[in-house]
Amino acid sequence: MRDIRFLMIPGAPEPVAPFSHATECDGWVFVTGQMPTVAGAPDAALADGIVAQTRQVMHNLRHVLQGLGLDLDDVVRTGAYLTHFERDYAAFNAEYRTWFASGRLPARTCIGVTALACDALVEIDFVARRPAA
C-alpha cells in the first residue's frame, strides 16, 4: 500500500481553491500550480507584467519546496500556463531560466490558456523527486 502525504506548507500563499500545496508518494513530490499571490495577502493586487508575476510564482514554488526540505535542483518536470502566450513567452522564458542552475533545466511543458485563477498571467507547477538516501 502506498503512503500518500497531503501537505500544507506554513508561510506559503493561501490556496485559491481546494487543494494541498503538495502531495508526496514514494519520494515523488507533486507541487500544486502556484499563482503570483503573496503569502498573507491573498487579496492584494498581483504584480504587473509577466516577469514580475513569474518571479513571484517561482518564489512561491521555492518556498513550498524548501518547506519540504527540497530545492529547485530536485525538480524534474514543470508545467507552465500563460494567458498571453505569444506576447509573454519570450519574457517568461528569460525570467524562468534564471531560477535554475546552468545545464539543470527540468523537462517542461508550456501551454497557452484562456484564463487563470486570480486573473493571473502565469501559473507553474512542479514534479520533484526526493534524493535517494
SSE blueprint:
Layout: E1 5-7, E2 22-25, E3 28-34, H1 49-67, E4 75-82, H2 85-97, E5 107-112, E6 122-129
Parallel strand pairs: 4-5
Antiparallel strand pairs: 1-2, 2-3, 3-6, 4-6
Helix pairs in contact: 1-2
Describe the structure.
The protein is of the alpha+beta class. The protein has a single domain, classed as RutC-like (60s Ribosomal Protein L30, Chain: A), CATH 3.30.1330.40. Helices cover 24% and strands 27% of the residues. It is built from two helices and six strands. The chain has a six-stranded mixed beta sheet with strand order 1-2-3-6-4-5. Helix 1 crosses helix 2 (85-97). The chain is globular and about 45 Å long. The model has no long low-confidence stretch (mean pLDDT 96).
